[in-house]
Amino acid sequence: MARTMPEQRGIKQLKRSDLVAEEIKRLITERNLNPGDKLPREIELQQQFEVSKGTIREALKSLEVQGLVKISTGPSGGGTIAEVPLNRTLQFMQNYLFFQDVTIDHIYTVRQMLEPELAASAVPHLTEEHFHALEHSISCCDPTQSAEDLLSQRREDVHFHDILAAASPNPFLRFTCEIINEMIRELIVYGNRTPLSEHRRFGEVNADFHRDILNAARARDADEVRRLMSEHMRDAAASVKRMKGRIQGRLILDTEGTRRPAAAKTSAGTARATPAAATTTRKKAPT
């Protein structure tokens, strides 16, 4: 039996292909499909929703643009479920905020609210793999130990928080903090007149905070992790302001950002910036 289209459910009038795209999303949910699973063939979707081939293809293209589906051609082609990448989600969010006056203060106000709870929630779930990844991150971001350039060190500062996010059992909190981390990586630049010594001091203080947080996490002291992270976020917000940190342009990804290589995975399963990602035009920012 053909599925009832959603005009009858009080949904506002949309293009037919958009309505079909919403129905395909429901189909994915009802069949519990996961990334890598195939959608029904186009002809089957046509018959199920009683629409033309063109409408089905337009609906699938819409889902592909959203990052939910990958379309392939050929005899065995069709739609395959995909996991929406974080940078695609960030791009949609930035487009939504395009005409909003979002500042560093706004970003760090939210970060100060969420990061302490995220870190505390992660403590019971941290494994030896996570601890090893956190230690490695500290060695990479500490100017007294790392031979990396300043931009790579600052990216690694943020990666430390990604590792904690990966261990959080709260998927919505994890997602929100990862989006903030990605915004910091992609959009914040510093005044060109900021002395290199100031960047180095910022990195050293961050590394000290990260060590203290790691030690408290190893002791499974969630309250101490929360306290330290709160202090760390207050200090980071003040330092970024002192270093003339600002949002680069409007909140929208450039084409280079959308094409950057997929992030590598650490042993703890968290994303880490690839060398190619660390050599964008923003490399001059810390100077």
Automatic annotation (TrEMBL):
Key words of the record: DNA-binding, Transcription, Transcription regulation
Pfam family, one: FCD
Gene3D superfamilies membership: GntR ligand-binding domain-like, Winged helix-like DNA-binding domain superfamily/Winged helix DNA-binding domain
Domain of life: Bacteria
Ranges of biased composition (kind: Low complexity): 263-280
Region spans: Disordered: 256-287
InterPro entries from the UniProt entry: GntR_C, TF_FadR/GntR_C, Tscrpt_reg_HTH_GntR, WH-like_DNA-bd_sf, WH_DNA-bd_sf
SMART domains hit by this protein: FCD, HTH_GNTR
Domain HTH gntR-type residue range list: 14-84
PROSITE patterns named in the record: HTH_GNTR
The protein's name in its UniProt record: FadR/GntR family transcriptional regulator
Source species of the chain: Hydrogenophaga defluvii
